[in-house]
Structures are given as structure tokens and as C-alpha cells.
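Forwarding these from the shared drive since the link keeps breaking.
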Amino acid sequence: MTTSQNLPTRDRSAADFRMPSHPERGNRTHPSAAPERTVMVAAVVLAAVSVGGAFVSVAGGLADTLLDAMGPTGRLSIPVPMMLAQLVAAWVASGRRRRPALVASALLAVVEPVCIVSGFFDGGYSDSARTGAHTAYQGLLVGMLAVVGVMAARRFSHLRRAQARRPIGARSGT
């Protein structure tokens, strides 16, 4: 008996000789999404407007120092920890990983309107020390908060629609 009968022939493809993938280990993939940088860009612009507002506050006499202007009593800027959290959330929302991007974009879409509404309750919109220029700059800050919220909601919506279009068998990893 010759051993040539047991040798693979050139007619068979390389795929025929691969080990079968393990159902629990071999097929794990992280669901991905196309990166979309609009949320991140809007959050960076918001951070720049916030830092600019701190300088305007100090120059206009609303705050004594930049740290006061960017603290919890700041009128034309976002507190530093909140701004850093928004930048991190925007970075995650802009990324390729679908599940973290969904969570981060949903979080931003909810937090931004809360930030806008909080100005009514902390006296930020009714401070008598504000001038017309301060009020206009505050309007710019509120507008940028709204832009980030809308961009985050848009990203969330796109990620959800992309998930709905995927075949049912491909959704198991999300």
C-alpha cells in the first residue's frame, strides 16, 4: 500500500485543512462601527468655548481667578471635572466599538440638556452681575452644549440603525 493516497492533493483548498473553529472561542469578534468624529469635534469646541468663558469671566469681574471661573460657581464655563468627563465620553462615543459608543453617546445626549436646564436652577441665567456681552457669551456656551447633545443623539441613532440592519445571527455579539 502506498502512502500517496493519504497525502493531500493539490485539488483541495487550504481551507479544507484548517482546524474547525471552537464555537465558544474562535468566533468572538467585537462589534464595530465606523468612527464618527463629529461628537468629539463638537466637545472640543465646547471645551474651548468653556475655557474662553473663564477668561471672559475673569476679565469682566464675574470671577476672581480662572479656577473660580471654571468651578461650580462659574457662569460662563463648565466646571473642569464635568468638562473632562464630557471629553472622555465624546472620545468613546466617536470610537469604533459599538457598545461603548452607544452608551457614551446616550449618556452625552442625556447629560447635555441637563446641563442646560441646571442653569435655571443654580442662578446662572439670572445673575445680575452679567452684562449684555456676558449674556451673549453664555448663549454661545448653551448653544454649544445643545450642539454636543444633538451630535451625540445623532450618533446614538446611527449606531442603533446600523445595529438593526445587521443580520440576526451577527447581532449576538452586541
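-- next protein --
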Amino acid sequence: MDFKGMRGKPRNEAPSNIMLAVLIIGVIVIGVILMLLVRVQRGLLGIILAALASGLLIYWLREVRSIVKQEFSSDGVNRSKPEWNYDLMEMKDEVTLVADVPGPEEEIKVQLEGEKLEIRGGNNFSKTVKLPKILNILNTNYLNGVLEVKLKRDVSKK
């Protein structure tokens, strides 16, 4: 069953490059503060403040390294696979499925085979959801990367 509804756009997640840039800027700011403290504060207070700033700088450098190791493999390609988000809400005679599905709208297809609902979308997206009982599709709606499928209990197969 092909679904034709409102055109939606897949959600874009914030790239990890922004997070990395924020950490690097933080490290630079801490380095500048360290240099200013050593120049301005002479004596024991300056040494204590410089030691604290150095400890904070080491902490941030370790954090940046661990984030880079988590996000990227040795060849620089992001290997993390995002989880697929969906909700299956059961009422007395109806079931509603709400799921994140990448578009475009022309590529969204919903098929029902017994107790399995197959959802296909853009970027070779394909997922199957096991339903609690045999159901019929009432309607489907796709908006801004979110697919909503309303299903009703099949009275012919009691």
C-alpha cells in the first residue's frame, strides 16, 4: 500500500562537529585564562589558580579525546547507528503507530501482512513492526518526518 500524504522532511540531528568545536573553544579560553593568571597574579595565589586552570585544561583535553574516539573510527567515518524511534499505542479496538521515518513522501510505503506492519522510506529505510493482533489500516499520515498509522481490529478474522 502506497501512502500519499503531506510532504515532510527528515529530521537532521545536530552534527558532532559542533560539539567538538565548542570543546576546542573551551580549551582555548581556559588556556588564555591560564596565561593571564600567571602574568597578573604573582605569588602563591597565582600558582594555585594556575594549577587549577592546568587541571581543568587536562580534563577538557581528555574529554575531547574520548568524544573523538567514540564518534569516529580510524578511517574518519561515523559508525554509530541511530536507534529507530516509534510508539505503539493500543486502545480497545484501535492501535496507533507513530514513528520517525525518513522521507521524501513519495518513498513512504506502508504494507500490512498478517500481524506485521512493514514500513519503507527514503535512504533505503525499511523496518517491520510486530503488531499485537490482526489489524486493518484505517489511515496513514506523514508530516515532517513523522509517520502516523491508525489500525483497527480485523473483525473478519476473530
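Residues 86-157 form a domain with the Immunoglobulin-like fold (CATH 2.60.40.790). Residues 1-14 have pLDDT under 50 and may be disordered.

- D.
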